[in-house]
Design a protein that fits this description.
Order of helices and strands: HHEHEHEEHEEHEEEEHHEEHEHHHHH
Radius of gyration: 31 Å
Shape: elongated
Largest sheet: 11 strands, mixed
Structural class: alpha+beta
Helix content: 55-70%
Strand content: 15-25%
């Protein structure tokens, strides 16, 4: 313990150099922690939102755009498709479930989605308050929407035309909130859900008689399909793409492509972190070598008082260990704080959910990595301290 206390005192006898080494090592570890937290949370969130969805069908366009718009609600859809497509696909023996989505309006940036109760069942959502919609212009709020807008069951609101927050409001046909969902951690938390008829009522298909005559003209935006058999993965996308105006997007393929694109950014950050760690290791090495040179007299005195050579070398190594322990704590705290800050920023943009409370199993390796780097940097200075010739030092002129 006394050796550790002496190493602590030696460490802070050069506060500027120690703080610089601590900052470099902490930043490198924070960057590594931040990359691990963000990549794991993004992957978990994307997989959670994709659960049970085997194919997304939309209007002709980019499959990636269709998946981002239909599953994660992060992009604009490629267009609308006829409502008859729903009937056709439900008649396919390879389709186990087809869930229609109708987009077009939003509430303060949160999308209003016309759909069926099966969409809630897809994510095993439960009501926290109220009930599901029973008629047009009744809405159920996701947990995040309810929290950030302050709307409650019984309140009314007007949706804005378009998927941004600057669209014209449908002030003449307000929605009534009839239910609020429990938080699921999925995309449902960021959505306002209503009946398909609500979207049609606000976009030109109004009046019972008119609706009856215009039933073939009604449109939806997308369909989320679940396969009944793995054979559907081979034939159904081909069948969809052969239909005029329809485009199939396979989430498994598009997600893999998305991860590859995101992976490039993660690799850049990881490379930056490695550069910082190597720079910090070099800085620790230079600092400890300098310290050993400055303290040759003190170390020689320790040897004369009976300290064996290994204790003198351990004293130098313990300085690096103290530095590694401090940097591990600071780096992990900074990494989580950065993840929390990014999560708050994304929440303001109604985007993906991130947070600083997530703990990655790989973070347990951070203190080990810091110790390994610090001890590797201290190896040469400790060897120099171990090989000090006390007689020569005492005879040398000062």
């Amino acid at each position: 313990m006394r050796l550790a206390a002496l190493a602590w005192r030696y460490l802070w006898s050069r506060p500027l150099a120690s703080l610089l080494n601590l900052a470099l090592l902490s930043l490198g570890l924070a960057a590594m922690s931040f990359v691990m937290l963000c990549s794991e949370q993004l992957e978990a969130g994307l997989r959670r939102d994709l659960a049970g969805i085997d194919l997304v069908v939309g209007a002709k366009g980019s499959p990636m755009q269709i998946m981002l718009a239909g599953v994660f609600h992060l992009d604009v859809p490629t267009g609308n498709i006829p409502l008859q497509t729903l009937t056709q696909l439900r008649a396919q023996p390879l389709v186990a479930r087809a869930i229609p989505l109708a987009l077009g309006d939003s509430l303060r940036g949160y999308r209003i989605v016309g759909t069926e109760p099966d969409y809630l069942a897809q994510y095993q959502a439960e009501l926290a308050q109220g009930a599901l919609w029973q008629q047009p212009l009744q809405a159920v709020l996701g947990a995040e929407v309810a929290r950030r807008t302050g709307l409650r069951v019984g309140d009314r609101f007007a949706g804005s035309h378009g998927l941004g927050s600057e669209g014209e409001a449908h002030a003449q046909r307000p929605y009534q909130v009839v239910g609020v969902l429990k938080a699921t951690g999925s995309v449902l938390d960021r959505l306002v859900l209503t009946d398909l008829a609500s979207v049609w009522a606000l976009h030109g298909h109004e009046g019972d008689a008119e609706e009856a005559n215009a039933v073939d003209e009604r449109e939806i935006t997308m369909l989320l399909l679940s396969y009944r058999s793995p054979l559907a993965a081979v034939s159904l996308p081909r069948w969809v793409n052969a239909q005029p105006g329809l485009q199939a997007a396979a989430p498994a393929l598009e997600t893999a492509r998305l991860f590859r694109m995101l992976g490039v950014g993660a690799e850049v950050l990881r490379g930056f972190a490695i550069v910082l760690l190597l720079a910090s290791a070099l800085s620790v090495l230079v600092g400890l070598l300098s310290a050993v040179r400055e303290r040759q007299g003190d170390l020689a005195m320790l040897r004369m008082l009976g300290a064996p050579a290994w204790r003198v070398a351990a004293l130098v190594s313990l300085e690096a260990v103290w530095l590694a322990l401090l940097a591990s704590g600071l780096g992990l705290a900074l990494g989580h704080a950065l993840a929390e800050g990014l999560g708050l920023l994304l929440a303001e943009q109604q985007s993906l959910r991130l947070g600083g409370a997530w703990w990655s199993a790989w973070e347990w390796a951070v203190p080990g990595l810091a110790l390994l780097l610090a001890l590797a940097s201290a190896a040469w200075p400790a060897w120099r301290a171990f090989r000090l010739d006390v007689t020569e030092l005492l005879q040398s002129p000062r």
